[in-house]
Design goal:
Layout lengths: L5 E6 L4 H11 L10 E6 L5 H13 L5 E7 L2 H5 L4 E4 L11 H22 L5 E4 L4 H10 L9 E3 L2 H15 L6 E2 L2 E3 L7 E3 L4 E4 L2 E4 H5 L2 H5 L1 H7 L1 H9 L5 H16 L7 E6 L11 E9 L2 E4 L7 H26 L1
Parallel strand pairs: 1-2, 1-4, 2-3, 4-5, 5-6
Antiparallel strand pairs: 7-10, 8-9, 10-11, 12-13, 13-14
Helix pairs in contact: 1-11, 4-5, 4-12, 5-12, 6-9
The structure holds nicotinamide-adenine-dinucleotide.
Length: 333
Amino acid sequence: MESEPIRVVVTGAAGQIAYSLLYMIAKGDVFGSEQPLILHLLDIPPMMGVLEGVVMELSDCALPLLRSVVPTDDPVVAFKDVAAAFLVGAMPRKQGMERKDLLSANVKIFKVQGEALDKHAKKDVKVLVVGNPANTNALICSRYAPSIPKENFTAMTRLDQNRAQAQIAAKVNVPVASVSNVIIWGNHSSTQFPDASHGTVHMAGKDIPARDAVGDDVWLRTAFVETVQKRGAAVINARKMSSAMSAAKAAGDHMRDWFNGTPPGKFVSMGVISDGSYGAPKDVVFSFPVSIKNGKWEIVQGLVTDDFAKELLDVTGKELLEERAEAIAVIEA
Ligand SMILES: NC(=O)c1ccc[n+]([C@@H]2O[C@H](COP(=O)([O-])OP(=O)(O)OC[C@H]3O[C@@H](n4cnc5c(N)ncnc54)[C@H](O)[C@@H]3O)[C@@H](O)[C@H]2O)c1
């Protein structure tokens, strides 16, 4: 018997990440090749004409799993009965804009969307925030959706993880799928800590520590970390637009693993509500290594962090505390 269609919302649906992401979702890459879908597409009123074009193209793809498409500028319609939410739309940083101005514009967007999720989405909806500042936007969104568990709000650091994995694979000269368990700690910003010290590389029929495979601790602590931290800026410099294809792929990876789980012994990085593990501040959305089973993530425990790691974890944690304080100041103003 065929499964009932599930409703999935993508916000910022007329934007460039959504242009790749919608196709991946609608052809079954995220929820599986047997799961029919109804796609809800949210954008702002001036973008409704562009969105109409996206709806036409989705129709012209003739995708068997896509049962219908609901384009809208109304969050109430967009979040009605959704089982999964990709919150991609956000206020972009404009020239001369301070971080505070950016946070202030986004707090307003994610407050409205949190309230709409709270009232209209399924109570077990899985929410992935992609729009920046992703970690703090996820925290704000969750605050305004008290009837949905905090664990259901996550922020995307999977693009950073994929970038880190690709850097290690290129350095060791193995296919990217041979690299596992590389971690992104903290904020999806230039303070993030890409950490390969618990990673493995599959070579000659067995998993060996990534540190041994790379054989260059200085590189792992310097060029590797900086390349991953600054990769977004490097793509903007080259493309004159921000990462979109790779961001869409990462959003699909994040949600697919959240629904389907991680294999035994493997973990992925996700921005999740912090319980203070590894000395991270509590109650910020912090990227940790997580393993996933039955649709629930758990922070991987017991990894040993050295002084170098502790220092970088501290820096990114402090930035998240500052962002939270600034966001709360906007809410309470
Ligand atoms: N977490 C990550 O790894 C990661 C990676 C890449 C990009 N991003 C972020 O993702 C976001 C989207 O990037 P993009 O390249 O698709 O941008 P884009 O400007 O091409 O598209 C964003 C879309 O969001 C819409 N939008 C704005 N406010 C909205 C609202 N209140 N409700 C619904 N839609 C709204 C805009 O109209 C636009 O169509 C940006 O914030 C970007 O910084 C995050």
